[in-house]
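Lay summary. Proteins are chains of building blocks that fold into shapes, and those shapes determine what they do. In this project we predict the shape from the chain. Here is one chain we studied, written as its sequence of building blocks.
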Amino acid sequence: QLKEELRLKDEELVRLRRQLDAARERYFGLYDLAPAGIFTLDAGGAIVETNLTLARMLGAEKDDLLRRPFADLVHPGDRARFVLHCEATGAGRVPPPEDLRVRGAGGEHFWARLESCLGNDLEGRALRRGVIFDVTELVRAFNQMLERLETERRESGRRALRAQEAERRRIASGLHDEVGQVLTGVLLKDGPKWTE
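And here is the predicted shape, written in a compact code that computers can read:
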């Protein structure tokens, strides 16, 4: 009887272990291999959890990022916006996405779109959960489009000025010819009048 109970418990443990392993595998695929950098910050803004994707984006090991203030990774010119974004999240609001420059591998900054929300850890302490997407190519394409539009605007202005100048010359030439023809007609009709 006892042997049978132990065998059933053992089978149950094996089944539970397989389910746990499958859940770990799903978690790894969904979290660590996600196409975006995912992280959790404590109330002070230090990284307490991150996925492999973010570590790769930043050119660091996951463990090296833990306890590091995320603000240190944000370009100095964008830190004020990052702090405002975090304050809004901390106040329980879901702020709009924020585009920031973040220091990546090799110390180079890349453009990242940050989205975050408020959460809690197992003890009920407030945490900020965030996701960043590398939008460098999107920003580059947008800036190139703006440059093309500005170039086209300047060229369009030049074409308009050339057309206006050509039209002014055509009108001036027409008026000159018309006045010349009228004067010639008057002279021919009345004949020259010579006075001595």
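What the prediction tells us: Residues 59 and 105 are 4 Å apart (CA to CA).
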